[in-house]
Write a structure and sequence with these properties.
Elements lengths: L8 E5 L4 H11 L3 E6 L11 E3 L2 E2 H6 L4 E4 L8 H10 L2 E4 L5 H4 L4 H7 L4 E6 L14 H8 L1 H4 L3 E2 L2 E2 L6 H24 L3 E6 H7 L8 H20 L4 H10 L10 E5 L4 E5 L3 H11 L14 H20 L3 H10 L3 E4 L10 H6 L2 E6 L3 E6 L23 H7 L4 H9 L5
Parallel strand pairs: 1-2, 1-6, 2-5, 6-7, 7-10
Antiparallel strand pairs: 3-4, 8-9, 11-12, 12-13, 14-15
């Protein structure tokens, strides 16, 4: 059976993570994706190479695509570029500010050639405002948005970012979602449109702290900003800033219901959201929580004191028994829990195998690969990994043939270093 996006043609002019991921997800839905790369390959190919022009990072973000190596700065490339734009239903870019326009791949240029195209651009900070022209990556988006400071961990005086590039990954998923919606709209109206996504916008979306009840939270936020300004002006350390932030939420000190615990022989995660699961957790560990009892004096000092006592108690109880003991006991009371693992351990995990969350496919140079299956399964229009990531320029000839170039014309373009 064909995928839901069978027949949709995507021109992927992106690099690194967010843009390439979005195009790869579209390929898993059935789209034909042509990745445009410079003759030397995109930067992610060259990041900790396993083989020349091949890296693990590139393999991860670019499976399912065809590769066309082309020098878009070559004076004789515009004719090929325009054919590609006419061929495409979707054009995706995430160059640094101004580059797409200089290459003839900005929205206005694409729309002039192909008015019905869906054009999706990813930037670091958005198209408007004082930072619109700045270059940025996931680490910068985490820093400027507050994601980094939402992670409580500090090492040697340096805040630690979230390691899996959340702004990049969620932006890529969101771009694919938006493109699918735009394709549906075009099917109804015949009209193309522009989509804009940014790492900063995604990073803001990810955080609960960006959701403010104006009537209740404004004064609290203003007071915290004032305190930050004062502390920074006197040279407060990052540890002091984090401690001040924690002091404003004393209830976090006693978070015994939603966290990872050390056991006698490992670690387990426990998640109890809502009064009933928390009551069952207290039953499992046989303790009382005064914070849930009538008459509790909920001053910040009292909340913090009780929270610290409960944390020490629960940690002690958990360390007294094995992970298997606690998992069995918590399961018996219908409490969400699970063992802490490394991703390498999941390759042979029976739950992963039963649901086919890892699939195998072949790479031209590396041979068999194994990686995550498409994140959504569809019964009528199945999702699938069409192919592994392409070698640099692996499909240049076949793509050019599809665009109507003769073998002689292709050879001439190769000789002139227009394509590779």
């Amino acid at each position: 059976m064909a995928g839901a996006l069978e027949g949709v043609r995507v021109l992927d002019c992106t690099q690194i993570i967010a843009g390439p991921l979005s195009a790869s997800l579209l390929s898993e839905l059935g789209a034909e994706v042509v990745k445009i790369e410079p003759l030397e390959g995109e930067p992610w190919r060259l990041q900790a190479e396993l083989l020349p022009k091949e890296s693990r990072a590139f393999l991860t973000q670019n499976r399912g695509k065809l590769s066309l190596a082309v020098d878009l700065k070559h004076p004789e490339s515009p004719e090929l570029r325009d054919r590609l734009i006419r061929w495409a239903d979707v054009v995706i870019t995430n160059y640094r500010p101004g580059v797409a326009e200089s290459l003839g791949l900005g929205y206005d240029a694409v729309r002039a050639i192909n008015p019905s195209a869906i054009y999706c651009e990813c930037t670091a900070f958005g198209n408007q405002g004082p930072n619109a022209q700045r270059r940025g990556y996931d680490i910068v988006a985490q820093a400027v948005s507050g994601v980094a400071t939402s992670n409580p961990h500090i090492r040697d005086g340096i805040p630690q970012i979230v390691g899996f590039a959340p702004a990049d990954v969620v932006t890529g998923v969101s771009m694919a979602m938006g493109i699918c919606a735009a394709l549906y709209s075009r099917a109804q109206t015949g009209q193309g449109q522009r989509l804009d996504a940014s790492l900063l916008g995604t990073a803001m979306f990810l955080q609960a702290g960006a959701r403010e009840i104006l009537a209740l939270d404004g004064d609290t936020r203003a007071a915290w900003i004032s305190q930050l300004d004062e502390m920074r002006s006197r040279g407060a350390s990052i540890e002091e800033l984090y401690a001040a932030k924690r002091a404003r939420a004393p209830e976090l000190t006693g978070n015994v219901y939603y966290r990872i615990y050390q056991t006698k022989d490992g670690h387990i995660a426990v998640g109890c959201l809502g009064p009933s699961p928390r009551a069952r957790f207290r039953q499992a560990l046989e303790f009382r929580d005064a914070r849930y009892e009538p008459g509790f004096e909920s001053t910040p000092e009292n909340v913090r004191r009780v929270g610290e006592e409960l944390t020490a108690l629960c940690e002690s109880k958990m360390r007294a028994e094995s992970s298997e003991y606690w998992l069995t006991r918590l399961d018996s009371l219908d409490i969400a829990c699970g063992p802490l693992k490394f991703v390498e351990e999941m390759a042979d995990d029976p739950q992963v195998a039963a649901n086919e969350y890892l699939v195998e496919y072949d790479h031209t140079l590396f041979g068999p690969l194994r990686g995550p299956a498409p994140v959504v399964k569809m019964s009528g229009t199945p999702t699938r990994v069409q192919r592994a990531s392409p070698a640099l320029g692996e499909h240049t000839d076949s793509i050019l043939c599809t665009l109507g170039y003769s073998p002689e014309a292709i050879a001439k373009m190769r000789d002139g270093s227009i394509v590779g």
